[in-house]
């Protein structure tokens, strides 16, 4: 896997993340010219990073220098002059030099260390000639530093990839390493000064390939040594431990280096990868654990290997913190000012506070994973591979949580509750949609890594986090068929009243939860509840959008690219998706079971108000009925529609066959159970439909005939008929002696009677309309209609008003209120409120 | 029936002293020869009352448990201690009780508590400590089992004290005392007071409200099934939204008592419309809570009103009958429950059927044919259903007149005139 791929990947990614990189425009120009895409990408990372850690001192400084153009323009001018003189004098040699550098560049591109090594030798011979002993050409310095970077990068890669370099390459690499080390030391001053005005230098010389010089002074110095140590390690000269050259990396100098890194962090063109390396080295060397705070910088938009490295870093950070309990990482701690002395625990203070925010690091890591999952095609093995990282991430989050809880036990620290909440939430969001077995595995792994004395307590939370936590729990319960618990919690939470005030992500979570509760109800055989719950999401025809599982392409909508991008960002990774086809199937089946008897009922008696349960379903049914020829059903929808028609005609067996042949039921747990449940429901609803449809044509019907027709028990048939009679749906009575249903005569209305009823309805509607008109005119200020509430009329008002969240908020979900009231147990929650 | 025993659930919401009658009842239930069980209950009694000041009784229990002839010595010590404290308390409160016993002092008391206290302070040198001593003493008396005295003391305390928390506690105490001396009228009075205090005092604490309400509901069961007069008040209380929600949320088992109370209330309430409403409510709630709680009583309601399965209803009824006879609160109502439940079955049966075989109905109600016929005649007379008995066929024939279309039209247009008037008034403004 070449770095080009990795680089390309993340650059496309970061361009979709524009809103985060508000300063990216500055980078546009160099980006266009840059040759080495992996370097370029690390530039961006840096930008990214500087924002992320804007609380750091270093970033503040660089921010200032970046914007204070006035300052730098001076040096720019002088620089330019100097360069020009050099050029005119040593034009020819200069050309040669550039050719060599080009060759090195080429060598780098193909990773050919052999040629790089020889070219580098040439370069070294050539350079002093130009400089004539006193001035070293800038280009040379630049090349030197560039090479050094690449070298480090290669070494880093070498570590990650198991593939061994071939012998020539390895030898070349080593040679270069040694030489570079020596030379950089020789030209230390130049390198430093170069470093200082690099920006100006670059800008003045556009023809030079984009410079890749980075690292502020101390880093550089340090780097040399590190490289040496590294080299030693790599080559198996492990004997050269901390004792030899590395000796100078006492904690004092480490601090210095760190400071340097922090300061350079926000700057243009600082190489992140390198910094990560340095940090890692530092971590190894550090005998006091003060330094790890820098490790936080390792999180950014990153390709796979970087992500992994960052994850590892964080892990080791936790380990270090675990070992050294007197050092804590805390937000807003003061920076250690004195670089030369190792920080010591102050008088009367228990801890050494290190600035940093673990929760931010963890969150960042988490976000990155999600983002990369969004970008990867879910049907490739790459996706699955990436998904496996989730386990590690979960462990990290878990450790972070434990760490915070550990901190919280000491009240003197005043750890904000917020951090713990955030991290707990992250953890929750990784598990809530998973089945219990998977969660168990995750948990086991997590605890395995946890120190033995760690304990976790549930922490209470406020506001939006609380809402999210509740939703996660409800989702989890619903997923595990705990319908009543989930429903009660949903009602108790009163979220349906306030969900519109939450951010879009929470609303999406709410929608997901709602759908899951609906599916759960269906699995339980509670068709009515399932339909009611799903109605809001599925009836809207915008399931995809509401569940953040794909952007709807709307023909006439005016969506700005901005909105579209936002929406894309909200999309859930594929493994979290709820199967939309299954959802539709469940919804339509439920609608069928409710609508068909209703249609039959209203069909036979015109005076019953036309009540529509699901508009979507009705529309589909009408469309289906309009077709002249209906072929065999192809998709889920066809199946349900044909089943509906069969059910309406009383052919319940055919209906069952249609419904059973829907393949998607296989995705439900306990498919057979679901099918049996559906058969039973269809039988019963079939009987009801039959009675509604054919009652006018019969005087009496024998219960046992009905029972054989619908293959139900006599007792069940009698119970169903009793229910219908009792609810006044059927004008009939049972004759116990002969076991028959006697349909009452004279129930059918005469023309005049039904017209009279219609007239009375119309009159009522007229009054209603009048009232509404007046209300609109007076903007509801007329209190005259308060009475109407007592009369229990005009209940239709307000019900529809909620719709209209509209497209504006992207995933906004329209009317919430309706969803809440649909739960039959609406009173439940009120108990708590009194 | 053991699985339907609510004792473990109930005791969590009752006071020690109230649990005792329940245990007594349980003693009565166990068969003569089951010594182990009896012993178990005695032990339970002992554990229950151990912490109270009823030393004599506890001592006896202990003696019984350990088969001693005499009460163990430590109980005599405790008894002595209790007696000393008792006299101590009497001394502390003698002055104030004396004062409150005097006509002229009581006559000077007004409804304003602060002023009262002020008055007593000025005229009779009563301190706030003395008032509080009343409370302590009341508590102590209650613990000794002198509920009457406790009620009296707590009443006096409540008249004088301005400490809201203690007043609330005293109200609970008084309620408990009234219940234990079976003064139902007083209990219902206290019940309303406690309810009001829950509503107002704990306004900002929904959880505490919920808890207090579930306690109150359990305590109210005592008067509900023991006093005819308080039944309507308490049922109304139970059916008020906050309380019905409490039942649904925290103690669904109370549904058994609620359902039983509603069903037995059939013939008794003067207002049949209200009874209908309560019945409808209970059906709705039983349906909603079916997943959380069910026993033969609620199953009976379900079978009859939700599933319309008369055979099942009959089966559940016999189970429920057995259950009721083993329930502390319901055993006295078992007969009327059976009777009322039969009525409900036949009522619902008649509504749905147009011709019923008397023999069949009689077996369904658990009666023989002659009794069944009498029963049906009574039913027809009582409920004024339009029905006739065909003696030759042995059937009852129902006549269900369809609701008239004209009546429907009238119903629908009834409100129109009024609404139009309101409308025109609003326009005119």
UniProtKB/TrEMBL annotation, chain A:
Residues 574-748 form the PCI domain. It is found in: Cytoplasm. Its main location: cytoplasm. PROSITE patterns: PCI. GO terms for molecular function: translation initiation factor activity. SUPFAM superfamilies: Winged helix' DNA-binding domain (SSF46785). It comes from the Eukaryota. Keywords: Cytoplasm, Initiation factor, Protein biosynthesis. InterPro entries: EIF3C (IPR027516), EIF3C_N_dom (IPR008905), EIF3CL_C (IPR058999), PCI_dom (IPR000717), WH-like_DNA-bd_sf (IPR036388), WH_DNA-bd_sf (IPR036390). Residues 801-813 have a biased composition (Gly residues). Residues 15-27, 36-57 have a biased composition (Acidic residues). Component of the eukaryotic translation initiation factor 3 (eIF-3) complex. Belongs to the eIF-3 subunit C family. Component of the eukaryotic translation initiation factor 3 (eIF-3) complex, which is involved in protein synthesis of a specialized repertoire of mRNAs and, together with other initiation factors, stimulates binding of mRNA and methionyl-tRNAi to the 40S ribosome. The eIF-3 complex specifically targets and initiates translation of a subset of mRNAs involved in cell proliferation. This is Eukaryotic translation initiation factor 3 subunit C. It comes from Apiospora rasikravindrae.
UniProtKB/TrEMBL annotation, chain B:
Residues 235-403 form the PCI domain. Keywords: Cytoplasm, Initiation factor, Protein biosynthesis. It is found in: Cytoplasm. It comes from the Eukaryota. Signal peptide: none annotated. It holds the Pfam family EIF3E_C. The keyword Protein biosynthesis applies. GO terms for molecular function: translation initiation factor activity. InterPro entries: eIF3e, eIF3e_N, PCI_dom, WH_DNA-bd_sf. Component of the eukaryotic translation initiation factor 3 (eIF-3) complex. Belongs to the eIF-3 subunit E family. Component of the eukaryotic translation initiation factor 3 (eIF-3) complex, which is involved in protein synthesis of a specialized repertoire of mRNAs and, together with other initiation factors, stimulates binding of mRNA and methionyl-tRNAi to the 40S ribosome. The eIF-3 complex specifically targets and initiates translation of a subset of mRNAs involved in cell proliferation. This is Eukaryotic translation initiation factor 3 subunit E. The gene is INT6.
């Amino acid at each position: 896997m070449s770095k080009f791929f990795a680089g390309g990947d993340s650059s496309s990614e970061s361009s979709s993340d524009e809103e985060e990189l508000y300063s990216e425009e500055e980078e546009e120009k160099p980006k266009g010219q840059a040759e080495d895409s992996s370097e370029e990408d690390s530039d961006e990372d840096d930008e990214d990073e500087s924002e992320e850690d804007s609380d750091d001192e270093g970033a503040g400084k660089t921010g200032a220098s970046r914007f204070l153009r006035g300052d730098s323009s001076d040096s720019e001018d002088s620089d330019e002059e100097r360069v020009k003189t050099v050029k005119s004098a040593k034009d020819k040699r200069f050309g040669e030099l550039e050719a060599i550098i080009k060759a090195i560049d080429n060598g780098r591109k193909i990773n050919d260390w052999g040629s790089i090594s020889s070219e580098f030798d040439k370069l070294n011979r050539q350079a002093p000639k130009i400089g004539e002993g006193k001035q070293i050409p800038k280009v040379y310095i630049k090349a030197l530093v560039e090479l050094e970077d690449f070298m480090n990068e290669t070494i880093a890669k070498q570590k990650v990839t198991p593939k061994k370099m071939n012998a020539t390459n390895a030898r070349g690499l080593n040679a270069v390493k040694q030489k570079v080390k020596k030379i950089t030391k020789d030209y230390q001053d130049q390198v430093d000064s170069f470093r200082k005005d690099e920006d100006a230098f670059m800008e003045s010389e556009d023809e030079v390939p984009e410079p890749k010089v980075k690292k502020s002074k101390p880093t550089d110095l340090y780097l040399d040594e590190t490289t040496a140590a590294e080299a030693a390690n790599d080559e198996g000269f492990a004997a050269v431990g901390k004792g030899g050259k590395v000796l100078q990396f006492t904690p004092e100098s480490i601090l210095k280096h760190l400071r340097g890194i922090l300061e350079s962090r926000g700057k243009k063109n600082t190489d992140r990868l390198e910094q990560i390396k340095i940090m890692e080295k530092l971590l190894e060397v550090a005998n006091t654990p003060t330094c790890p705070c820098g490790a936080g910088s390792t999180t950014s938009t990153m390709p796979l290997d970087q992500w992994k490295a960052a994850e590892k870093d964080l892990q080791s950070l936790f380990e270090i913190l675990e070992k050294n309990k007197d050092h804590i990482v805390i937000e807003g701690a003061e920076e250690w000012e004195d670089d030369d002395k190792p920080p010591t625990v102050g008088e009367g203070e228990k801890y050494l506070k290190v600035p940093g925010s673990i929760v931010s690091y963890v969150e960042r890591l988490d976000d990155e994973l999600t983002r990369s999952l969004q970008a990867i095609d879910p049907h490739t093995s790459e996706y699955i591979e990436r998904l496996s990282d989730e386990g590690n991430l979960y462990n990290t989050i878990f450790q972070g949580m434990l760490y915070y809880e550990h901190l919280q036990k000491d009240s003197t620290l005043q750890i904000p509750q917020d951090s713990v909440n955030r991290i707990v939430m992250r953890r929750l969001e990784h598990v809530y949609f998973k089945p219990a077995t998977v969660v168990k595995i995750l948990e086991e792994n997590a605890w395995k890594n946890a120190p033995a004395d760690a304990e976790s307590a549930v922490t209470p939370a406020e506001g939006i986090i609380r809402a999210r936590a509740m939703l996660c729990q409800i989702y989890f319960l619903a997923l595990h068929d705990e319908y009543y618990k989930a429903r009660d919690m949903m009602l108790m939470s009163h979220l349906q009243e306030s969900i519109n005030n939450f951010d879009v992500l929470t609303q999406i979570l709410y929608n997901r939860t709602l759908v899951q509760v609906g599916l759960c109800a269906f699995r339980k055989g509670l068709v009515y509840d399932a339909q009611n719950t799903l109605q809001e999401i599925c009836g809207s025809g915008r399931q995809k959008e509401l569940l953040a599982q794909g952007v709807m392409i709307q023909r006439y909508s005016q969506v700005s690219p901005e909105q579209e991008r936002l929406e894309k960002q909200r999309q859930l990774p594929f493994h979290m998706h709820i199967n939309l086809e299954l959802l539709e199937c469940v919804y339509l089946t439920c609608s069928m079971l409710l609508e068909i008897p209703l249609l039959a009922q209203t069909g036979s008696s015109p005076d019953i108000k036309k009540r529509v349960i699901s508009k979507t379903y009705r529309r589909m049914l009408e469309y289906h009925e309009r077709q002249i020829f209906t072929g065999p059903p192809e998709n889920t929808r066809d199946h349900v529609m044909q089943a509906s028609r069969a059910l309406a005609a009383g052919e319940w067996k055919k209906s069952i066959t249609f419904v059973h042949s829907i393949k998607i039921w296989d995705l439900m747990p306990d498919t057979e159970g679901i099918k049996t449940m559906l058969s039973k429901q269809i039988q019963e609803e079939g009987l009801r439909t039959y009675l509604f449809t054919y009652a006018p044509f019969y005087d009496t019907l024998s219960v046992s005939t009905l029972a054989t027709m619908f293959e139900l028990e006599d007792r069940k048939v009698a119970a169903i008929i009793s229910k219908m009679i009792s609810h006044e749906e059927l004008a009939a009575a049972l004759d116990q002696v002969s076991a028959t249903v006697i349909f009452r005569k004279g129930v059918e209305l005469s023309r005049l009677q039904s017209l009279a009823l219609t007239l009375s309805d119309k009159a009522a509607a007229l009054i209603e309309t009048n009232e509404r008109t007046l209300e609109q005119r007076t903007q509801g200020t007329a209190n005259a209609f308060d009475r109407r509430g007592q009369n229990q009329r005009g209940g239709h008002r307000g019900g529809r008003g909620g719709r209209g969240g509209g497209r504006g908020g992207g995933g906004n979900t329209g009317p919430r209120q309706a969803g809440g009231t649909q739960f039959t147990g609406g009173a439940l929650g009120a108990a708590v409120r009194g | 029936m053991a699985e339907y025993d609510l004792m473990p659930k109930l005791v969590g919401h009752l006071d020690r002293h109230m649990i005792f009658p329940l245990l007594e009842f349980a003693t009565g239930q166990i068969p003569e020869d089951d010594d182990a069980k009896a012993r178990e209950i005695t032990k339970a009694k002992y554990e229950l009352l151990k912490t109270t000041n009823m030393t004599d009784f506890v001592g006896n229990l202990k003696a019984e448990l350990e088969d001693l002839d005499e009460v163990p010595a430590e109980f005599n010590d405790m008894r002595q201690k209790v007696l000393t404290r008792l006299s101590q308390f009497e001394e502390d409160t003698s002055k104030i009780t004396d004062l409150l016993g005097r006509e002229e002092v009581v006559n000077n008391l007004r409804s304003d508590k602060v002023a009262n206290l002020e008055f007593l302070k000025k005229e009779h040198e009563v301190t706030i400590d003395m008032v509080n001593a009343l409370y302590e003493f009341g508590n102590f008396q209650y613990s000794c089992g002198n509920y009457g005295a406790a009620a009296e003391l707590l009443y006096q305390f409540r008249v004088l004290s301005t400490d809201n928390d203690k007043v609330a506690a005293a109200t609970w105490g008084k309620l408990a005392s009234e219940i234990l001396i079976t003064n139902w009228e007083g209990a219902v009075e206290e019940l309303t007071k406690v309810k009001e205090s829950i509503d107002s005092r704990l306004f900002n604490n929904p959880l505490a409200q919920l808890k207090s309400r579930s306690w109150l509901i359990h305590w109210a069961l005592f008067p509900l099934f023991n006093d005819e007069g308080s039944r309507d008040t308490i049922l109304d209380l139970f059916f008020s939204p906050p309380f019905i929600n409490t039942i649904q949320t925290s103690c669904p088992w109370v549904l058994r008592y609620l359902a039983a109370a509603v069903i037995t209330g059939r013939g008794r309430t003067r207002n049949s419309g209200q009874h209908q409403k309560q019945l409808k409510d209970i059906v709705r709630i039983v349906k909603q809570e079916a997943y959380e709680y069910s026993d033969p009583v609620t199953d009976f309601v379900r079978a009859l009103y939700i599933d319309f399965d008369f055979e099942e209803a009959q089966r559940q009824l016999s189970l429920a009958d057995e259950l009721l006879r083993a329930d502390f609160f319901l055993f006295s109502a078992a007969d009327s429950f059976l009777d009322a439940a039969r009525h409900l079955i036949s009522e619902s049966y008649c509504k749905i059927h147009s011709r019923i075989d008397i023999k069949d109905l009689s077996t369904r109600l658990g009666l023989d044919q002659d009794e069944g016929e009498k029963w049906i005649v009574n039913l027809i007379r009582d409920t004024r259903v339009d029905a006739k008995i065909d003696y030759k066929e042995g059937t009852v024939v129902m006549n269900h007149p369809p609701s008239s279309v004209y009546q429907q039209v009238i119903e629908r247009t009834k409100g129109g005139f009024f609404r139009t008037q309101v409308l025109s008034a609003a326009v005119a403004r």
